[in-house]
Design a protein that fits this description.
CATH topology of one domain: Methylamine Dehydrogenase, Chain H
Number of helices: 1
Oligomer: single chain
Largest sheet: 4 strands, antiparallel
Structural class: mainly beta
Length: about 700
């Protein structure tokens, strides 16, 4: 297990909202989509399991045309697997297994004996129910989940991602250990990996006597002899990371990471891509009901094909929980750019949303910008797209094969901040030219801002750069900027604000010649919005407001159940917040202007360590904790063997509420323990890194 990783610590200032009962954020019912991890079918009912802030189980009785959340009693809504036994519906979550006997109307936890609650997979064999867990191996229930027993003898890898059943043979696909076989209901296991050159098995499926394994990075493998030997069957398969399978007659479908759905009609001997209309190509789950094929995607929701994948249509009505990366306003139109679901439009103050993706061949939207009647969308590893009709249709501009993290308009000039610097178009994107003189090579530009004739670029690791000639040349303007990882920029009058990763907000009153830290420190600031003299900052800990140019800040988060804020925008009298996994939220500006600093009576009264969010995570998560009085505090992360991974906090802390950002990008998947200690107070919680 790797023990080196990057981490950042942020301790938010101790502020809270005023009048919480009268002033709060409201979820705007969208956009639609979400991270769909699994399906189950029972008669005419289609169930979808999702993960995220507003996730859980959704039910459709009309082939996905509309969906209804069915989560009563489901106390953990990170759903990774579903299974049906007769009239019983089971959900495998990161809080164990839940059972519904009434099509999801209500749920009850059925976890007695289940010593690992991170359930990634479920399988049914006769009356036996098997649960595959992240790090705990396989558990068996013979009484509909009333009790469980561990069945791991011979199972040398306990990260179980998938199951398959052929007669009395039970197969388990593990992440890193390949495929295991049990012929006695899990009492004992043997490894069956001969010829399986990639041991990270995400998915398994049976077609007749054929067993297929989908791997992470190795494509598809076929065994015709119950796993005794395997051969790769990847001809035509352009993505070798296979997350899901489905079988319909002689048709075998494979859902891949990034390249959509593939079809084989000859047991994997050859594959063809079947993606027409599938605008999100990160396919995590597949299911077949009669002649209908459903594809669950990563933050793009559900797609339906009625013709063996020849064409697909989005069927997301009521299926919420997208990852909103960007917001843009034009008049009464509010546009939301999502991570995998494309662009959504609301014309009624975000009461309802509609997909506006025709012609948009890349649905991972990083940035949006408005210039007159033109709407531009910057995508991840794709193109900048242009719509001249409010998103009704889109066309690719001349900028391709790049990630446009930021877009900015200055007169007739359109600038794109990319993973290789700044690009300029003077003709609405028809053609682009590099505008990088003075910028370091291959600079990631995450933020752009325009102030008169000045153009500012916020970079990852290089701080802020200034151009006074439309990007023809750049100069560094970092004096006093003690954190050079700049995520966001904002201009308010003569003030220039820079939001940093872990360093809070900095202010310059002289076009970047000098910078000073504001009152919001140790925060990761993804976005800004300006309304008059009011400045809002969107952070991993919610939204903060300053009415005095950053001298002091107030948290304005009441009602905002997802505080991972990636985008902010002001429209009329409202502020909108786009969140990771939680969609778009709305709050009247007038509710927040009166936010004040927390009084001493509002300080925490006891030590508290909260569950990290998100959990599971990849690669970053937030840990919140409370300190009731000035104390020496340590916060450390350990692996499951008790070895210290990292110290996040080791210092005297004044009374207050704090947040720590933990990044596990260089760690292996698995369960870790984080511990808060101060004097005699000790608290431990689990966090799960899941790639």
């Amino acid at each position: 297990m790797k023990t080196m990783f990057r981490f950042l610590v942020m301790a938010f200032l101790v502020y809270t909202d005023m009048n919480p009962l009268q002033a709060q954020w409201v979820y705007t019912n969208g956009p639609t989509g979400g991270w769909v991890t699994c399906f189950a079918i029972s008669g005419t009912n289609l169930f979808a399991g999702t993960t995220g802030a507003n996730s859980g189980v959704f039910l459709s009785t009309n082939n996905g045309t509309s969906w209804t959340a069915i989560n009563t009693g489901l106390t953990n809504t990170y759903v990774r697997s579903l299974a049906v036994i007769g009239t019983n519906l089971f959900a495998g979550t990161f809080g164990g297994v839940f059972l519904s006997t009434n099509n999801g109307t209500s749920w009850n936890a059925v976890n007695t004996g289940l010593t690992n609650n991170y359930v990634l997979s479920l399988a049914v064999s006769d009356t036996n129910l098997f649960a595959g867990t992240n790090g705990g191996g396989v558990f068996l229930s013979t009484n509909n989940g009333t009790s469980w027993s561990v069945v791991n003898t011979g199972l040398t890898n306990t990260d179980v991602r998938s199951f398959a059943v052929i007669g009395t043979n039970l197969f388990a696909g593990t992440f890193g250990g390949g495929v295991f076989l049990s012929t006695n209901n899990g009492t004992s296991w043997s490894v069956v990996n001969t010829g399986l050159t990639n041991s990270s098995v995400w998915s398994l499926v049976v077609s007749g006597t054929n067993l297929f394994a989908g791997t992470y990075g190795g494509g598809v493998f076929l065994s015709t002899n119950n796993g005794a030997s395997w051969s790769a069957v990847n001809t035509g398969l352009t993505s070798t990371s296979v997350r899901s399978f489905a079988v319909s007659g002689t048709n075998l479908f494979a859902g891949t990471y990034g390249d959509g759905v593939f079809l084989s009609t000859n047991n994997g001997t050859s594959w063809s891509v079947v993606n027409t209309g599938l605008t999100n190509t990160d396919v995590r789950s597949l299911a077949i009901s009669g002649t209908n094929i459903f594809a669950g995607t990563y933050y793009g929701g559900v797609y339906l094909s009625t013709n063996n994948g020849t064409s697909w249509s989005s069927v997301n009505g009521g299926l919420t929980d997208p990852y909103v990366r960007s917001l843009a306003i034009r008049g009464m139109n509010i546009f939301a750019g999502t991570n995998g679901g494309g662009v959504f439009l609301s014309t009624n103050n975000a009461t309802s949303w509609n997909e506006v993706n025709t012609g948009l061949t890349n649905n991972y939207i990083l940035s949006l910008a408005v210039s007159g009647t033109n709407l531009f969308a910057g995508t991840y590893a794709g193109s900048v797209f242009l719509s001249t009709n409010n998103g009704t249709s889109w066309s690719a501009t001349g900028l391709t094969n790049t990630s446009a993290y930021a877009l900015a308009v200055s007169g007739t000039n359109l600038f794109a901040g990319t993973w290789s610097g700044v690009l300029l178009s003077t003709n609405n994107g028809t053609s682009w030219s590099a505008a990088n003189t003075g910028l370091p090579n291959n600079t990631y530009v995450y933020a752009l801002a325009v102030s008169g004739t000045n153009l500012f670029a916020g970079t990852w690791g290089g701080g802020v750069f200034l151009s006074t000639n439309n990007g023809a040349s750049w100069s560094t303007v970092n004096t006093g900027l003690t954190n050079n990882y700049v995520w966001s920029l904002a201009v308010s009058g003569t003030n220039l604000f820079a939001g940093t990763w872990g360093g809070g907000v900095f202010l310059s009153t002289n076009n970047g010649a000098n910078w000073n830290a504001t009152g919001l420190t140790n925060a990761s600031v993804r976005s800004f919005a300006v309304s008059g003299t009011n400045l809002f900052a969107g952070t991993y800990g919610g939204v903060f407001l300053s009415t005095n140019s950053g001298t002091s800040w107030s948290a304005v988060n009441t009602g905002l159940t997802n505080t991972n804020v990636y985008a902010l925008a002001v429209s009329g009298t409202n502020l909108f917040a786009g969140t990771r996994d939680g969609g778009v939220w709305r709050r009247p500006l007038s509710d927040m202007i009166t936010a004040v600093e927390m009084s001493s009576t509002d300080l925490p009264t006891h030590f508290s360590l909260q569950q990290n969010y998100p959990n599971p995570f990849n690669p970053g998560t937030i840990i919140n904790y409370d300190v009731p009085k000035a104390s020496f505090v340590t916060l450390k992360v350990y692996d499951v063997l008790g070895r210290e991974v990292k110290t996040l906090v080791n210092e005297e802390k004044p009374a207050g509420r704090y947040s720590v950002s933990f990044n596990g990008s260089n760690l292996a998947s698995g369960i870790y323990i984080y511990q808060l200690r101060s004097g005699s107070f000790i608290a431990n919680k689990k966090l799960v890194l899941l790639r």
